Amino acid sequence: MDILDQYDYQKLKISNTSDKELFKITYDEARIHIGKLREIYGDKSLFGKEKDESFQSSLLTIYQTFEGKDLYPSVEEKAANLLYLVTKNHSFVDGNKRIAAYFFLLFLEKNNLLFTETGDKRVPDSTLVALTLMIAVSSPDEKDTMTKVIVNLINGKNTA
Predict the structure, then answer these.
(1) Residue 60 near residue 30, CB atoms below 8 Å
(2) Does residue 84 contact residue 135 with C-beta atoms inside 8 Å?
(3) Close Cβ partners of 21 (under 8 Å, ≥ 6 residues apart)
(4) Which 3 state secondary structure label does DSSP give 69?
(5) Alpha carbon 88 to chain centroid, angstroms
(6) Model pTM?
(7) How many angstroms separate the first and last alpha carbons of the chain?
């Protein structure tokens, strides 16, 4: 309820996030994962086939810095932007949303944020589907709001 209230009044903030990143995803590693996903999903000639260099750009963007400081300083911000960018950039002929959701989960898992202390997923599968679809149909000018919602949902220190 608190997150919805903050959303309604445009007061969503990012705070109390994790700054200790354990895992950094690389393009080469991502391509290996996409190859594995290709064996499971869809047309093997189209699934995960890149249209351009925007996927690599999405991966690099979450690690961008300005004057020596990360633009996305927390693990949660990197994860939220990874989901947003891979979904929204539509880098692949087929599989954009599935690939985005997969890398979001992988990134959270490798950074010890996928599960709560009680072993529950921070973002249940149905919620991840809804978030990914919400991003896909959102306007680009809503990026900041979309990523703040995601950060607040996966924030391990969030008590709301």
Answers:
(1) no
(2) yes
(3) 75, 78, 111
(4) strand
(5) 11
(6) 0.88
(7) 8
Cβ-based neighbours of 142, under 8 Å, separated by 6 or more = none
Which two tokens mark 145? 């709001």
User: Which backbone phi and psi does 21 adopt, to 5 degrees?
Assistant: -90, 125
| CB contact at 8 A, 69 and 12 | no
Task: Convert the pLDDT of each residue in 88-106 to its tens digit.
Answer: 999 999 999 999 999 999 9
Separation between Cα atoms, residue 77 and residue 70, nearest integer Å: 10
Q: Please give the single-letter amino acid code of residue 64.
A: Q
Whether the CB-CB separation of 83 and 120 falls below 8 Å is answered with no
Q: Residue 66 is inside which H or E element, if any?
A: strand 65-66
Q: What is the pLDDT of residues 52-96, one digit of tens each?
A: 999 999 999 999 999 999 999 999 999 999 999 999 999 999 999
SS (H, E, C) 87-154: HHHCCECECHHHHHHHHHHHHHHHCCCCECCCCCECCCHHHHHHHHHHHHHCCHHHHHHHHHHHHHHH
Q: 7 phi and psi, to 5 degrees?
A: -65, -50
Length of the chain: 160
